[in-house]
Write a structure and sequence with these properties.
heterodimer, A: about 230 residues, mainly alpha, 10 helices, globular, B: about 220 residues, alpha/beta, four-stranded mixed β-sheet, about 45% helix, binds zinc ion
Chain lengths: ~230, ~220
């Protein structure tokens, strides 16, 4: 964030015609009194990440094809409050889950919201060991360092990195949030010894994720459920 | 016919958003994303609120949020906001009612709630009668609940001494945290993802409240039955 000292206030008040029409970037640092909100690291530097490969339509039961269509539309729309996320996309078959795992891999690492949406769907509908295996891979990823290019180290302005940690770790945090919610709503999940062991392993993997925000949350959940 | 009706309803709902004046050079994609985000928030409905939310916003309600925004921000321009990864900025001493958005607003893949958090944070800075809710310097040392330095996770840069904190729940960080936490708890037409996102970002932002007593008061407020 760039904020000039308050001592500049009166000078500017007396000179609105000289400064008022300028854009923030047309002013020098000393002139600027802007509040700026950085989500994240520097945006420059083209991403070297793998570009999303075109994906064939997944093999799905006929009755779930409209749900897949809905999912594709939602991911493109940037309208996160699409009600279909809670209706058409709430009770899904194992085949649908499998298609989500593939879709996740087809997206660029920088597609944080889209990847997080897919993790959210699987974790909210947590059913099988395959789901746990998929989630494991999310915590085995290299952390995303920069919204413009996950592989590039960032030069964050710590002053106004407004929400940056949460966006960078969004897929991992969405997964933990839903695992916690599901264990709370469906305690019977942990009564199956194999599933319990899988959840334990998943949380231990998440605890090793090298972002404190994720590590702490995973540890908290593991302790909460006595795992 | 059904499609036509849907289109008309969409058009009407978009036009119900008070006119936000975009500068001519604001790319269409940024304009449409901003309008879509504000349109989403303007249609939100709620079933209650916490006392802190009532003091600042009066209700978890789309029209109320829209009025809050419209009475603070009337025009939007495009700029780099000092470069780097800035998403938005305001210059309260030149034109407190103008918000500048950067390309990053649409370039980076943030959840919709995160974009809204930023624009409502910025809108709060436009309150000249409240000293624009200038940020406070984070204390030295600035420690988390486990006694470790609060720092940028990747660069390791410490937040201590940086003007990146609020000492009141009413500032830009505090008010946007309160708004999101209330959306998470009380929104009646938000889906699970939006409620989750609101909670995740609220619990991120609350860490910028540097006075432990104020932070605790906020946590108590959020636990309101
Ligand atoms: Zn600010």
């Amino acid at each position: 964030m760039l904020i000039a000292g308050l001592f500049l206030f009166k000078d500017y008040e007396s000179l609105p015609e000289q400064h008022g029409l300028k854009k923030p970037s047309q002013m020098t640092f000393a002139q600027s009194n802007q509040f700026s909100e950085d989500f994240n690291a520097k945006p420059e530097g083209a991403s070297t990440a793998v570009t999303a490969a075109p994906q064939a339509l997944p093999q799905l039961p006929e009755n779930e094809k409209p749900a897949w269509q809905a999912l594709e539309e939602i991911l493109k729309s940037k309208n996160d409050n699409d009600p279909r996320l809670d209706t058409a996309l709430s009770q899904l078959s194992a085949e649908f889950h499998k298609a989500i795992y593939s879709k996740y891999l087809s997206l660029k690492p920088e597609d944080r919201n889209e990847r997080g949406t897919l993790v959210f769907l699987v974790a909210r509908d947590l059913k099988t060991e395959a789901d746990i295996d998929f989630l494991q891979t999310v915590y085995e990823e290299s952390p995303c360092l920069n919204m413009a290019n996950c592989a590039a180290n960032s030069e964050n302005d710590p002053q106004e990195n407004n929400g940056q940690q949460t966006s960078l770790n969004y897929p991992q945090l969405a997964g933990l949030y839903q695992v916690d919610a599901q264990l709370s709503k469906r305690p019977e999940l942990l009564k199956n010894p194999q599933f319990r062991a899988g959840i334990y392993a998943l949380l231990k993997t998440a605890e090793n994720f090298p972002a404190p925000q994720v590590h702490e949350k995973a540890k908290q959940i593991r302790e909460k459920y006595g795992l | 016919m059904k499609k036509l009706m849907t289109a008309l309803i969409l058009l009407l709902s978009l036009s119900s958003q008070a006119a936000l004046n975009f500068d001519a050079d604001v790319p269409a994609a940024i304009q449409s994303q901003m309008v879509a985000d504000l349109n989403f928030i303007s249609q939100l409905t709620g079933s209650g609120q916490t006392p802190f939310h009532k003091q600042i916003f009066t209700a978890v309600d789309g029209k109320t949020y829209q009025t809050f925004f419209d009475t603070r921000i009337t025009s939007v321009g495009v700029d780099s906001c000092g470069g780097g990864a800035a998403v938005a900025c305001v210059q309260p001493f030149f034109d407190p009612n103008k918000m500048w958005l950067t390309d990053n607003f649409i370039k980076f893949s943030h959840p919709q709630i995160a974009r809204l958090m930023v624009v409502f944070h910025e809108a709060r800075h436009s309150e000249s009668n409240n000293g624009n809710w200038m940020h406070a310097s984070c204390p030295r040392p600035f420690l988390d609940s486990t006694g470790k330095d609060m720092k940028s996770i990747w660069t390791g840069a410490k937040l201590e001494g940086q003007p990146a904190c609020d000492i009141s729940q009413n500032g830009s960080y505090g008010s946007s945290t309160i708004m999101l936490k209330n959306i998470s708890r009380y929104c009646t037409n938000c889906n699970d993802k939006v409620k989750m996102d609101a909670d995740l970002y609220a619990m991120d932002q609350i860490n910028r409240i540097s006075r432990p007593a104020v932070k605790q008061a906020m946590l108590n407020d959020f636990a309101t039955p």
